[in-house]
């Protein structure tokens, strides 16, 4: 198995624990749906749909929605959510770097904190734009490198083995200069906005535990260090709690994010 394929397989397994965090991601899904201008009847693709929070929010408005994710456990969870809500959404296991859809199949392509984890940004964005019709909207939410979640992934990078050659750090998608460069001349009317996900937690330690249990790369790193290097795990946890403490106030952790929207030429 080549390094990129191995990286994806590891990611598929790692993100299987993400389900419980839908209580957080669901809280900001309507913001992305509004920002993308999704309306009844629009054909929408939700890339990296996870448990379906954006897809189902859009479907509830009357959009015709498809959601894809690399991790089968999350696709199953999304289907269960759709059944609970009595909504029809097509959920399938698929890779953003090889979308199983024809050219110009969708009016809107969205991704909430998801496509940013594809290892090769140029491949992911090419595919997302390929399946978007000319004049259609691409919109996504990402974590900037200078705020909490970007700092968390930098910390993971400090303690974890390096990614394979060619794999870009996910928080680069939260840098407006990088986003502008990656979208390039394929789009027009590029617009950025910023918002905050406010996470209710009892303490810094509770938030660290939440991230360790449910955020795939952190989960795998904690497991590996617990087995191989407990002192290094203790150092990671100390640094992580210090980072969380910067954003923790009144039993909330502030998680700033970037919104991007553009129209395909």
How would you describe the overall organization of this protein?
This protein has 265 residues and is α/β, with parallel strands linked by helices. The protein has a single domain, classed as Rossmann fold. The chain has ten helices and eight strands. It has helices at 3-14, 22-36, 53-60, 72-85, 121-130, 148-159, 176-183, 204-214, 216-228, 230-247; strands at residues 43-47, 64-69, 90-93, 106-112, 132-142, 187-200, 248-249, 252-264. Strands 1, 2, 3, 4, 5, 6, 7 and 8 form an eight-stranded mixed beta sheet that branches. α3 (53-60) links the parallel β1 and β2. α6 (148-159) runs antiparallel to α10. The radius of gyration is 18 Å and the shape is globular. It starts with a helix and ends with a strand. The mean pLDDT is 97.
In short:
With 265 residues, this protein is an alpha/beta fold.
Q: What name goes with the CATH superfamily? A: Vaccinia Virus protein VP39
Please tell me the total number of domains: 1
The CATH class: Alpha Beta
Global shape: globular
| DSSP summary, beta strand count | 8
* Count of separate DSSP helical elements: 10
Low-confidence stretches: none
Order of helices and strands: HHEHEHEEHEHHEHHHEE
């Amino acid at each position: 198995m080549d390094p990129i394929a191995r990286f994806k397989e590891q990611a598929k397994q790692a993100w299987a624990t993400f389900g419980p965090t839908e209580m957080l991601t669901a809280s900001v899904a309507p913001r992305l749906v509004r920002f993308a201008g999704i309306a009844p009847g629009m054909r929408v693709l939700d890339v990296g749909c996870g448990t379906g929070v954006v897809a189902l929010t859009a479907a509830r408005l009357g959009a015709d929605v498809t959601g894809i994710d690399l991790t089968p456990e999350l696709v199953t969870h999304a289907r269960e959510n759709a059944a609970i809500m009595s909504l029809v959404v097509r959920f399938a296991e698929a890779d953003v770097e090889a979308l199983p859809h024809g050219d110009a199949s969708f009016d809107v392509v969205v991704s909430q904190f998801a496509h940013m984890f594809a290892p090769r940004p140029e491949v992911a964005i090419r595919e997302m734009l390929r399946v978007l019709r000319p004049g259609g909207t691409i919109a996504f939410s990402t974590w900037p490198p200078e705020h909490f979640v970007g700092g968390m992934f930098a910390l993971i990078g400090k303690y974890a083995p390096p990614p394979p050659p060619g794999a870009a750090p996910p928080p680069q998608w939260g840098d407006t200069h990088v986003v502008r460069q990656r979208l390039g001349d394929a789009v027009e009317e590029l617009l950025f906005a910023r918002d905050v996900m406010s996470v209710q937690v009892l303490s810094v330690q509770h938030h660290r535990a939440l991230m360790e249990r449910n955020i795939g790369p952190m989960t795998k790193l904690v497991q590996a260090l617990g087995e191989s290097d407990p002192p290094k795990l203790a150092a990671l946890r100390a640094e992580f709690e210090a980072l969380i403490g910067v954003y923790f106030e009144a039993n909330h952790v502030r998680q700033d994010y970037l919104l991007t929207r553009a129209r395909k030429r």
